[in-house]
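Propose amino acids for all 209 sites.
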C-alpha cells in the first residue's frame, strides 16, 4: 500500500505505462536476474497460489492457462502437485525465453490488458500470479479470464494490496460476485513478498455459466 512506500523497495511499482513495464522486465530478464531477485526477496506468490489451487483442483490433467507466466515460476510449483498441462502467456518475450524447456505446452506473447485471442470456454483453469500489480494488468482482464474458462472451471489470482482499491479490483470483484459470474472459494490476504512488507489478496473462484 502507499503508506508502505513499496515503490522504493520494488522500483517496478513506480512504473505507469505498459511500455515502461515491458522494458523493465526485458532488462530484468538479462542473466535471469528476475528469478534471482524473486528468490532473494522470498517471493511466495507462486507457492501460495499453487498450494491453494491444488487443494481444490482434483484432476491433475486439466488444461491451465498461466496468465502473466513470466519465467514459469507457477508452472514449476504446480508440477510439484502433479499438474502437467500448462499454457503460458506474458508481455515480456525476454522472460518467456527463460521458461524451462518442456514445462509449458505453449508460450505466447500477450498483452493481458487487451482482448485475449482465445476461444470461449477453452481452459479448465486460469492462474494469474503477480500480474495484478502496479502499472500492470487492470481489472477488466477478469472478464476475459471468465470468458476463456469452462463452466465450473477455476480462476486463481493475486492482487497487490496497494492497487486493490486504487485500480478498482474491489468493485470489479463485487460486480462479478453480484452478477453470479463466479463463486468465491477462497479470498484472503497472503504474504506475497513478506521480505519487502508487500502483501496481496489471494483469490480462488469457480466460474458459473
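Proposal:
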Amino acid at each position: 500500500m502507499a503508506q508502505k512506500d513499496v515503490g522504493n523497495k520494488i522500483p517496478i511499482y513506480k512504473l505507469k505505462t505498459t511500455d515502461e513495464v515491458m522494458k523493465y522486465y526485458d532488462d530484468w530478464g538479462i542473466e535471469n536476474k528476475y528469478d534471482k531477485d524473486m528468490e532473494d526477496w522470498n517471493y511466495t506468490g507462486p507457492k501460495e497460489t499453487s498450494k491453494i489451487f491444488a487443494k481444490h483442483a482434483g484432476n491433475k490433467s486439466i488444461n491451465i492457462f498461466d496468465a502473466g507466466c513470466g519465467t514459469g515460476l507457477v508452472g514449476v510449483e504446480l508440477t510439484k502437485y502433479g499438474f502437467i498441462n500448462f499454457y503460458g502467456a506474458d508481455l515480456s518475450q525476454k522472460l518467456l525465453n527463460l521458461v524451462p524447456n518442456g514445462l509449458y505446452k505453449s508460450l505466447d506473447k500477450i498483452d493481458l490488458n487487451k482482448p485475449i485471442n482465445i476461444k470461449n470456454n477453452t481452459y479448465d483453469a486460469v492462474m494469474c500470479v503477480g500480474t495484478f500489480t502496479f502499472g500492470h494488468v487492470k481489472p477488466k482482464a477478469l472478464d476475459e479470464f471468465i470468458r476463456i474458462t469452462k463452466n465450473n472451471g477455476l480462476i486463481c489470482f493475486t492482487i497487490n494490496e496497494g492497487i486493490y482499491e486504487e485500480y478498482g479490483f474491489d468493485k470489479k470483484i463485487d460486480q462479478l460476485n453480484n452478477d453470479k459470474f463466479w463463486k468465491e472459494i477462497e479470498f484472503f490476504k497472503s504474504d506475497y513478498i513478506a521480505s519487502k512488507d508487500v502483501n496481496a489478496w489471494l483469490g480462488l473462484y469457480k466460474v458459473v455459466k
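The mean pLDDT is 87. The chain is about 30% helix and 30% strand.
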